[in-house]
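Quiz preparation item.
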C-alpha cells in the first residue's frame, strides 16, 4: 500500500514538478513510503527529473544504473519516454491520472 507521501509525489509529478520526480526516484531506489525497490522505476523518475533540470538527478540516475542491466536501463528509458508522451498528450487544464 502506498502512503500519502508517495501519492502526493505522483500527483505533483503529473503536474510537472521535477522535485517530485526526483523524490519518486529516491522512493523507488530505497523502497520507502510503501513502495518496493524498483530500479527501473527509480531510473525512470531520476531521468525525468534530470531532463527537467533537477541538479542531483543525473548523478542519482547514474548511481542506480550501475546496478542495472542494459535491458533494464532500456526499459526505464522506454517508460520515461512513455510518461513524457502521455504528459504532452493530455488536455491542457485537465489533470489526467
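Solution:
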Amino acid at each position: 500500500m502506498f502512503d500519502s507521501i508517495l501519492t502526493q509525489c505522483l500527483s505533483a509529478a503529473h503536474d510537472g514538478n521535477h522535485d517530485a520526480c526526483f523524490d519518486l526516484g529516491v522512493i523507488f531506489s530505497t523502497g520507502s513510503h510503501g513502495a518496493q525497490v524498483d530500479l527501473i522505476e527509480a531510473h525512470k523518475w531520476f531521468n525525468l527529473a534530470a531532463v527537467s533540470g533537477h541538479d542531483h538527478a543525473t548523478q542519482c540516475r547514474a548511481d542506480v544504473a550501475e546496478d542495472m542491466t542494459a535491458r533494464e536501463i532500456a526499459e526505464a528509458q522506454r517508460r520515461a519516454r512513455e510518461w513524457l508522451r502521455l504528459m504532452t498528450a493530455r488536455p491542457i487544464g485537465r489533470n489526467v491520472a
